[in-house]
Amino acid sequence: MDSDADPPPRSPSPLEALGVLASHEVKVAPGLDHAELYTREGLLGLMWHGSADHERVVLAFGGAMGGFFGPGRGLYHRLGVDLASDDIGTIRVDYRVPNDFDRCVHDGVASAQLAAGQGARSFVVIGHSFGGAVAIAVGAALGELTAGVATFATQTGGAEAAELLTCPLLLFHGDRDELLPHAASEMVQMISGGELVLCAGAGHLLVEAEDDIHRRLSEWIPACFDAHDPPS
Fold it and tell me: In this structure, are strands 169-174 and 42-49 parallel, antiparallel, or unpaired?
């Protein structure tokens, strides 16, 4: 064996593979920072609730058009503010290339790596519509680091990774969804065995059920973290 042989090249990490050209971060309010990462494939935006060194972090993904707010009238912002008081951080992710599934999943895994570099050890991943499938794929990719996954009116395309999840999965869907029938979440439930909450009278944005969803998640997310034993 040639002891002088060069070692095989190391694959870049998800964060390295983004090819970040520059970044900026601004504190927009107490406990809320806005970061922008400039890459050759677009701008990755992050709204970060809580301190940067939280060990427990929620990753939140929007639909096919991207954005920071998620379903309802800004459910992700409400959750981020509330969870910070329980020592849980929240990163709301605005994709580089909305509706590009592989790139959006990459954005999510890279965001988790960024948080892990600050001390995060456990993640709950949530997503709306297209972002529901992204959340499932990111949760599966993070493996034992994932404490839970929650989706809102998820699509089925890309959600096949639900069978790989080893954490609780909670699916919300409106029974009057005008874009994606609740059968989509029912199919994901069949794959994963997760829990489905059918929201009476709610459409795709789940505005009619937002308060109930917020209350449920305010209990469910901390419970997932409490039950999770992240790898050392």
Answer: unpaired
